[in-house]
Amino acid sequence: MKIFLHLILLVGIVAACKPKAESPADTAEISSIPAEAPKEGDVIISFGSCNKQDSEQVLWDDINQESSDMWIWLGDNIYGDSEDPAVLSEKYEMQLQNQEYQTLLRSTPIVGTWDDHDYGKNDAGKELASKKISRDLLFQFLDLDKSNPAWEREGAYTAHDLDKNGIKIKVILLDSRYFRDAVHKKNGRYKASVGADILGEAQWTWLDSLLTRNDADVHLIANGIQIIAEDHKYEKWANFPAARQRLFALLQTKNVNRPILMSGDRHLSELSAIQLEGLELPLYDITSSGLTHSYRNYSGEKNQHRIGEVTATKSYGVLVLNQTGKDSIRVELRFMGDGRKILQSFQLFPA
Predict the structure, then answer these.
(1) Could you name the CATH architecture of 8-349?
(2) Which end of the chain has fewer beta carbons closer than 10 Å to its terminal beta carbon, N or C?
(3) Going by DSSP bridges, is the β-strand pair 341-349/328-337 parallel, antiparallel, or unpaired?
(4) pLDDT in tens, 218-256
(5) Is the peptide bond before 350 cis (omega within 30 degrees of 0)?
(6) CA distance 51 to 63
């Protein structure tokens, strides 16, 4: 795939401040410049994943300072790793009792999906026996309104609207666990499973309906695992080539307004992009992972679709959107570290 030369790297990676000792990767050193306060007209969406409820959580005070219009959980919101609902409930409650997270709860709408550790078992799919009660516990944690139709169906997929300052944003949260077919490993690497699915037909139908409406200026489409990256050996949509292509085809045939994919899982943050035939704009996948822990032994990893560098320190993501003209919306992505320091920043749109 071609490199997007028109993507502007807004903030260089400045070596004025070295990464913390627990994050030895030197691919994304922390800038010495903290983020500015939000400007009038900005719409702020913050997000992250991979959060151990019993670990030190140093980023919530920074996230609270973002004054976000929405927080999106991208999975592994706790490390439940149990099929016992009592264990999961206890761990969710521990997270809810975190004082800085309570501040976020009081000030910011919170939505989210899950990945494997909050689902209940590492790398699990539709075979998990406890998935129904686990889903209900997730919705309780997210305080999903009981009137939301998601409570009446299987799976944890939901959609949410954010309309502010003349910008309409559709947040589509996919469930890549509840209906996911089995995948197999060989020599420690997941093999592509031809014909295997991730979403299940009911969720595909629901997604098709949302994308057919195409009623937002920006569509954020989030799930737990990476969608564009295909070179690493871990969980990813590329292990399900038919499902990955089906998603891309949906975006193409519906000509969706400014779709942006989002993912977690990897204990690193990076931006990937491809150009789909028929779409004027590049398709991005924002991976934001490592709220309480990061890829400590990271020494490099191939991603032919990566733009910029890998951030292998604890981080969260921020999207800043503002209207620059009648039909023009500027979308900036920031990967943020402790102290609200900008690790990387990209202008996604206008591309």
Answers:
(1) 4-Layer Sandwich (3.60)
(2) N
(3) antiparallel
(4) 999 999 999 999 999 999 999 999 999 999 999 999 999
(5) yes
(6) 14
Lookup: tokens for 251: 């975006």
Between CA 198 and CA 255 the distance in angstroms is 22
Task: Determine the pLDDT at residue 24.
Answer: 25
φ, ψ of residue 106 to 5 degrees: the values are: -75, -25
| Token output for 17 | 């401040």
**CB neighbours (10 Å) of residue 179?**
20
Strand order in the sheet with 283-287: 158-164, 167-173, 218-222, 259-263, 283-287, 269-274, 306-311
Whether the per-residue pLDDT at 103 is higher than 90: the answer is: yes
Paired strand residues for 151: none
Alpha helices in the chain (DSSP H): 60-65, 85-96, 99-107, 116-119, 131-142, 201-213, 241-254
Under 8 Å between Cβ of 120 and 82: yes
Tens of pLDDT, residue by residue over 195-227, are 999 999 999 999 999 999 999 999 999 999 999
Q: Residue 330: what residue type?
A: R
Q: What is the mean pLDDT of residues 317-335?
A: 94
